[in-house]
Write a structure and sequence with these properties.
Layout: H1 6-16, E1 29-33, E2 36-39, E3 44-47, H2 50-53, H3 62-72, H4 86-98, E4 105-110, H5 113-128, E5 132-136, H6 145-150, E6 168-171, H7 182-195, E7 202-207, H8 221-234, E8 237-241, E9 265-268, E10 279-284, H9 285-288, H10 304-319, H11 322-340, E11 347-353, E12 356-361, H12 371-383, E13 386-387, E14 389-391, E15 397-400, H13 408-421
Helix pairs in contact: 3-10, 4-10, 7-8, 12-13
Length: 424
């Protein structure tokens, strides 16, 4: 057998793939199990990235593996819009019953999160006959052209790729550290209606209940109530982008369940199918039915292997009580940081909803974002075998995205690594 090394594969990658596909780690995975990665040289790493929030049920959950294997024995592809199959109907029925949507709901499946967002905008435009969309600064909605237009962060997502689709407007997202209140965000929308776009031309307002790439900023309840009222007043479709926050991460199946208002459409992907590529839009049946037949779909949309995995994921979340588990693990993690704040003045803020947790670093003297310190902590943690991700407009926050199935002893070990990595 030819031995492999991370260095040799890295050399091949640099020669064979473009630099635009940014790669964080310089090691290459060979095997993964639950919350542990093993690279081609045999080194083990605790995975607190989970494929960017994709693996709430962990790497290779046995139930998900069995579901995929069983489907693999039956068929792998027909294109649902050519020859349909029952599993898509079953999954749609389950999501329709679970999603926080008022009245009858319907679900359409796609492949990626960006596809879900693009189709949500299409559905909103078809339903309203309008074009304009309002999004938020710091939001992330994908790397497609419309996804980039909606995304409220230039570097690295938009650099060199414009012009983008028009009729997209951004307002500030509430942030205590940025001194932006929910009222000021809502006032900014009112100002948009006076200066830039007639509300009767606005098809949709889209936001993440908890911003992902933007820094795990949690939308205040008063923002959600205000947006619901604005949408009702002007006939605007309210879209919750739950691509990153969905499927038990926040302590609820959907983050919107934390609020006392409901959106019209919800986008989903990432942890829906336990690592398989599957996304979807669930929403009010009357809105979902607006596009004409053939207006929605995709060759790989609702792939049967991915749908089988998603059905297993929903079973695992329910049987293993992963919503409750998310709350428990999140409390342990935030409890650690609450205790460390007195020792480390650079910990500026701890933001959390269930196990969607981020910690922001700022220079204690100037208050400036401290991305350099984050990178040092990230490196020290990885040196000890813990993979951490950054986020935020300035890249100065750590986000924690461990599988919710992580064993207690491994989680405890990871917390010890974090505590040591924070030491100067």
């Amino acid at each position: 057998m030819i031995s492999k090394s991370n260095a040799s594969i890295q050399e091949r990658r640099l020669a064979a793939t473009p630099r635009g596909v940014g790669v964080m780690c310089n090691f290459y995975v060979e095997q993964a199990e639950n919350a542990t990665l093993r690279d081609v040289e045999g080194r083990e790493v605790i995975d607190f990235a989970a494929g960017i929030a994709v693996l709430n049920t962990g790497h290779r959950h046995p139930d998900v593996v069995r579901a995929i294997q069983a489907q693999l024995e039956r068929f792998t592809h027909t294109a649902f819009q050519i020859v349909p199959y029952e599993s898509v109907v079953t999954l749609a029925e389950r999501i329709n019953a679970l999603a926080p949507i008022d009245g009858p709901a319907k679900t359409a499946f796609f492949t990626t999160g960006a596809e879900a967002v693009e189709n949500a905008i299409k559905i909103a435009r078809a339903s309203t006959g309008r074009a304009a969309v309002i999004a938020f600064g710091g939001g992330f909605h994908g790397r497609t052209m419309m996804g980039m237009a909606l995304t409220g962060k230039v570097a690295p997502y938009k650099l060199g790729f414009g012009p983008f689709p028009g009729d997209v407007y951004h307002v500030p997202f509430p942030s205590e550290l940025q001194n932006v209140s929910a009222k000021e965000s809502l006032d900014a929308i009112d100002m948009l209606f006076k200066t830039d776009v007639d509300p009767q031309r606005v098809a949709a307002i889209i936001l993440e209940p908890v911003q992902g790439e933007g820094g795990f900023n949690v939308a205040p309840p008063e923002l959600m109530r205000g947006l619901r009222a604005l949408c009702d007043k002007h006939g605007i479709v309210f879209i919750a982008d739950e691509v990153q926050s969905g499927f038990a991460r926040t302590g609820k199946l959907f983050a919107m369940e934390h609020y006392d208002v409901k959106p019209d459409l919800i986008t989903m992907a990432k942890s829906l199918a336990g690592g398989m590529p599957l996304s979807g839009v669930v929403g009010r049946a009357d809105i979902m039915d607006a596009p004409a037949p053939g207006g929605l779909g995709g060759t790989y949309a609702g792939n049967p292997l991915a749908v089988a995995a998603a059905l297993a994921v929903l079973d695992v979340i329910e049987r293993e009580k992963l919503c409750e588990r998310a709350r428990q693990l999140g409390e342990r993690l935030t409890g650690l940081f609450d205790g460390l704040r007195n020792r480390h003045a650079f910990i500026a803020q701890i933001r959390s909803l269930g196990s969607m947790v981020a910690v922001e670093f700022r220079d204690p003297k100037t208050g400036a974002p401290d991305a350099a310190r984050l990178q040092k902590v990230q490196k020290k943690a990885l040196d000890e075998g813990l993979l951490l991700l950054s986020c935020g407009m300035y890249g100065n926050a750590i986000r924690f995205l461990y599988p919710l199935t992580i064993p207690d002893e491994l989680f405890t070990k990871a917390l010890g690594i974090i505590e040591r990595a924070l030491q100067d």
